[in-house]
Design brief:
- The chain is of the alpha+beta class.
- 59% of the residues lie in helices and 15% in strands.
- The protein has a 4-stranded antiparallel β-sheet with strand order 3-4-6-5, with helices on one face. The chain has a two-stranded antiparallel sheet with strand order 1-2.
């Protein structure tokens, strides 16, 4: 395979990996029945006028399966962290306990589980669409290389086959992430 096509393939794989990483991060933020740091670590806290991810402001632990403990490194931002959690769509009321915040994750109702399952399906489909879009762009780039006579028709077909294998692998990864999250919601 020509150097230009190889670079396009590497670029496509890198972008697909990033799309799936974003999917995993987004799914981690969807509240299941168990406490996981991913639920809150990317919440934006107004820290002296700057929206800052919570994971940069505090230590987040899970002492029990249904409890999150958030310990800000700067105790003066405790109220800002509490406000960010209260304003989020987590539907969990934070409790200030000295210099820490406790979040007790309540059991999910059937309606909330169904609502979250729909969110998980939509987020996963967005991830699949992103991967397919990257495949389309990569195939278009290689078709241009063929038109510019930098690669042969056989190399283009080989490249498109490799891109499809990559696409299939990352789509499968998205499907597995969706299944795992749905299982977590059901067991919650």
């Amino acid at each position: 395979m020509a150097t230009g096509a190889r670079a396009v393939l590497q670029d496509a794989e890198e972008h697909m990996k990033k799309a799936i990483d974003v999917l995993h991060q987004t799914l981690a933020s969807v509240r299941g029945g168990r406490a996981v740091p991913g639920m809150v670590e990317n919440l934006r806290v107004d820290y002296y006028g700057v929206p800052t991810p919570l994971k940069q402001l505090a230590h987040i632990t899970v002492p029990e399966p249904k409890t999150l403990v958030i310990q800000p490194w700067d105790a003066s931002c405790l109220k800002a962290v509490e406000k960010a959690i209260a304003d989020s769509d987590l539907a969990v009321a934070p409790v200030i306990d000295g210099k820490i915040l406790r979040l007790v994750i309540p059991a999910l109702t059937r309606e909330r589980r169904e609502e979250l399952a729909k969110i998980v399906k939509k987020v996963t489909e967005d991830g699949r669409v992103a991967v397919r879009s990257i495949r389309r762009e990569a195939n278009e780039k290689v078709e241009r290389l063929e038109k510019e006579k930098q690669i042969t028709e056989d190399e283009r077909f080989q490249f498109q086959d490799n891109v499809q294998k990559l696409t299939d692998r990352y789509i499968q990864s998205a499907d597995q992430a969706q299944s795992a999250k749905e299982k977590e919601l059901i067991q919650g």
